[in-house]
Write a structure and sequence with these properties.
about 375 residues; mainly alpha; two-stranded antiparallel sheet; 2 strands; about 85% helix; membrane
């Protein structure tokens, strides 16, 4: 389906190429085809190498600029978030073939239901993605590019007053420019990748929920034995997709939510308890808080409603099976036992209460740490 193809294209921009290379190999290649076989993989890997260079530059800049940081705590927090982003990228890259397999399975399963449509959801996700990318660029401009311009104006004024020290200060300015440029580049790359992963995870959850809704609707209308056999087959297909999501991406979504909660906590804490930062970086902290809140809420809600619809199907099917069909009941029971709900690294199953709990935890610890900090 077009929605899933769009996700594969977005992942490809970050070097995560999910296509099986064996499907595009030539059986008896001539010289021209052999040349294309060597060139095409290099072009295909180009985005991956760009992402790798950006990550290496960020690590080098973080190590080189740590001694010059005035606020060591903020530097450690930024380094932690950068490390988590790299871990998330590596885990998604390792599971790139799973992304392709899941998109193919979802497309094939959706064809079973003739009335399956997601046009409104597609428009909503496009709007969400564009808005998040706009927030990303606003954050980057306010936090990274604006200080470069301010520093440049400061250096010009200083050079007019004291020309003897201007050359030395300009050397420091160029170092500052290099560090800020790398930080801006990594910021845009990391935040855009987080948005792409969020759209992928949420879109798959919405697909699963819609498939369960269609299945539940058919269950309530047709009750023949052949229909129940077909329902079991369809449920098995959807459940396997959900199992792939749980087995291969539960750790990834755990890291993703850890990143958003750290970003949301930092933004809220500094807005509430750091007056100096509030005045200097109000717009950046506001955009950062909205960005992290949106990603966190989207993932939690989409995963929760997918789990809820799966539970409805599990609860509805056994009661509709005729009492004398013991073999069919046993098949359904075995299939339900193998079903897996979406969770955070197999630690906590997604439900609606998780959203309130996570936000309440951030608020509680933010007030506690802020109060203790003022007391000290």
């Amino acid at each position: 389906m077009n929605e899933l193809k769009m996700i594969c294209v977005l992942f490809y921009l970050f070097g995560i190429y999910a296509l099986d290379r064996s499907k595009i190999s030539f059986p008896n290649p001539d010289k021209e085809e052999m040349k294309n076989q060597r060139i095409i993989p290099c072009l295909r890997c180009f985005p991956k190498y760009i992402i790798l260079i950006i990550f290496l530059l960020k690590i080098t800049a973080a190590l080189a600029g740590f001694n010059f940081e005035v606020d060591k705590k903020s530097a450690i927090a930024r380094s932690l978030v950068a490390t988590l982003v790299i871990i998330l990228y590596v885990t998604v890259y390792r599971n790139r073939r799973v992304i392709l397999r899941m998109t193919v399975k979802l497309s094939e399963t959706a064809k079973i239901f003739p009335d399956f449509r997601l046009r409104r959801i597609k428009c909503a996700f496009i709007t969400f993605f564009v808005f998040v990318i706009a927030l990303t660029f606003f954050k980057g401009i306010v936090n990274h590019l604006k200080p470069i311009v301010d520093k440049r104006n400061e250096m010009r004024n200083f050079s007019e007053i004291n020309a003897t020290k201007a050359s030395l200060n300009f050397q420091l300015y160029y170092q500052f420019l290099a560090l800020k440029s790398i930080a801006f580049l990594f910021h845009i790359t990391a935040c855009t990748f987080l948005a792409v992963f969020t759209v992928f995870y949420c879109l798959v959850c919405i697909f699963l929920r819609k498939l369960f809704v269609e299945l539940l609707h058919q269950i309530k209308t047709d009750h023949s034995i052949n229909d129940f056999r077909r329902y079991l087959y369809v449920f098995r297909l959807i459940s396997r997709i959900m199992k792939d999501m749980e087995n291969f991406f539960s750790f990834s979504v755990f890291v993703m939510l850890l990143i958003t909660m750290i970003g949301l906590f930092r933004a809220g804490y500094r807005l509430a308890f750091d007056p100096k930062t509030f005045q200097e970086k109000f717009l950046y902290l506001l955009f950062s808080g909205i960005y992290n809140m949106l990603l966190q809420v989207m993932i939690m809600i989409s995963a929760s409603i997918a789990n809820e619809e799966a539970e409805k199907v599990v609860e509805s099917l056994p009661g509709l099976i005729p009492k004398h069909e013991n073999d069919l009941k046993l098949e359904f029971k075995n299939e339900f036992q193998q079903h897996k709900s979406l969770s955070l690294w197999k630690i906590y199953t997604f439900d609606r209460s998780l959203l309130i709990t996570s936000l309440g935890t951030l608020l509680t610890y933010g007030v506690l740490i802020g109060t203790l900090g003022r007391g000290n």
